[in-house]
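Cross-posting from the modeling subforum.

Setting up a comparison between two proteins and wanted a second pair of eyes on the formatting. Protein 1 (sequence, then C-alpha cells):
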Amino acid sequence: MAISTYGVSLKYGADSPSKELVIKSYPEIMAKRSALETTTLSDDAKTYIPGIRETPDSFEFTANYDAAVFAEINALDAVQKCSLTFSDGSGFTWDGYISASTTDGDVDAVVEMTIAITPTSVPTFAAGA
C-alpha cells in the first residue's frame, strides 16, 4: 500500500510534541546501518555484519520562511520532544535541539528556511493505527 506525503506533520514541544511546524520536505530519519567487514583470508568475497545506524548530526527540514516561527525556534534553548507523523498515523519520535536558518535565495522564488534538529536520542518508529 502506498501513502502520500500529504498530511505529514512535524511537531515539537518541551514536554510532548504538540507545536506543529509546517514543512515542505523532510529527511531520512531511520538511516541504514553501517557495515562492519568480517572478511577473512579464506573468503573469496567480502562479508559483513550490521553495525550501528548512521544517524546524521542533524535532521534538516525545509519550510517556507516565517519570521515569527524563525524567531520562536531560535529562542529555544532546551531539548525538545519531536515527532514526524505520516498520513497513516505511523512515524518517528526523538529528542533534540532545534534551530532555524534561512536558505539561499534566487530570483522570483519563495524565501525558505531550514529547520535543523540535532538528535539527542535515537529515533523510534511506531506503526500507525
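Protein 2 (same layout):
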Amino acid sequence: MIAKNTICLWYDGAAQEAAEFYAKTFPDSSVDAVHRAPGDYPDGKQGDVLTVEFTVMGIPCLGLNGGDTFKPSEAFSFQVATDDQAETDRLWDAIVGNGGKESACGWCKDKWGLSWQITPRVLSEAITDPDRAAAKRAFEAMMTMGKIDIAAIEAARRG
C-alpha cells in the first residue's frame, strides 16, 4: 500500500534497477512492490515495469518509469547523515562507483541523475558551531572538498 505522503521519482526505464541499488546500499531500505503497466503508454508497453514502490532509509518512494521527458536536478537531493568516515566513504564510493559522479561539498549524483548529500554529522555540527570563527573555518574547508574528510573538518574547526 502506498503511504499517504510518498516521494515520486521519475526514471527513464530504470526505476526497478535504482530501487534495488538503494535497497542494497542504504540501511532501512527495501524494494516493496513492482507494478507493471496494464496497457501501452507513451514510453512503454503493456507488461513493462511502470512503477516501483521502495523505501530509502525509512522514506517511502515511488519510482515512475516515465521516459526521458524530465531529468532530475540538484533542486532535489537525499541528504544522508553519516556517523564516521567509514560510513561516509562506503556510501559515497557506492554511489560514485556505480556509474555516479562526484560533485562538491559532499554532493554526488547516482547513475540515474539523482543527487545525494553524504553529510557527516561532524560537518553539520561544525558549520553551525556557536563559535562563528570555528564554523567559518570548517565551512571554508568543506568548500574545497568533494567527499567530506572528517579529520580535515575537525582540524579546521579547531583552527
